[in-house]
Amino acid sequence: MKKQLLLIALFIFSVSAVNAQSKSSFSKGDNLFNVGVGIGSPYFGTGYSSSLPVNPSVSYEIGVSNAISVGGQVSCASSKYDGYNYTFKESAIYFGARGSYHFNQLLKLNPKFDLYSGLSLGYVTVSISDSESIVTGTASGFGFGFYAGGKYYLGKSTAIYSELGYQSLSFLNVGIAFKF
Q1: So which residues are the signal peptide here (predicted)?
Q2: Spatial distance between the Cα atoms of 134 and 56, rounded to a whole number of angstroms
């Protein structure tokens, strides 16, 4: 009798462990909150020193299916050029919507990984000024982007992430993600 109970307990534990391991790192209803920094901007040229060494970014997404999430993102950036008694400043802010496809179940990935790609559509406002008041103004408009990224979960709800692509104000975003 003890052997049978032990075998049943071992079987239940094994099935539970397999189910826990096969649980995807992304599913319908998941809330994802990312806080990161962007590196490399399509808006600011060479020779500039950044007022912010990196471009801060926050995003939120909710899982609408076991593979698709939708949400929004806000990013900002600024730079400054100093030289020959002349200063040029530029700043930008981005508000956008984003949608991602998560490849976890399709590729049967380890639950610690979340591999995704997506599209974004946003509105950016760029302001410029210089010390001589020769160049001043603001420009804004809509733009789209694409990205591929991944998260590595350090625990049940905390991950580090990286996204590469043309989106918001940076070519590369890295940071920490929270799932709740």
Answers
A1: 1-20
A2: 29
Which tens digit of pLDDT belongs to each residue from 43-55? 665 555 555 567 8
Please answer whether residues 151 and 173 qualify as being in contact, where contact means their C-beta atoms are separated by less than 8 angstroms.
no
Q: Return d(Cα 103, Cα 118) in angstroms, integer.
A: 11
Is the model's pTM score more than 0.85?
A: no
Per-residue pLDDT reduced to its tens digit, 115-141: 999 999 999 998 988 888 787 888 899
Q: Are 160 and 154 in contact (CB under 8 A)?
A: yes
Structural contact between residues 144 and 64, judged by C-beta atoms closer than 8 angstroms:
no
Residue that the structure tokens 């992304």 belong to: 26
Give all domains of the chain, ordered by start, each with its CATH number: 25-179 (2.40.160.20)
SS3 content of the chain, % helix, strand, coil (to 5): 15, 60, 25
**How is residue 105 written in tokens?**
């179940």
User: Which two structure tokens, joined as six digits, stand for 177?
Assistant: 């993600």
Per the CB < 8 A criterion, the answer to whether 38 and 164 are in contact is: no
Distance of alpha carbon 151 from alpha carbon 59, whole angstroms: 14
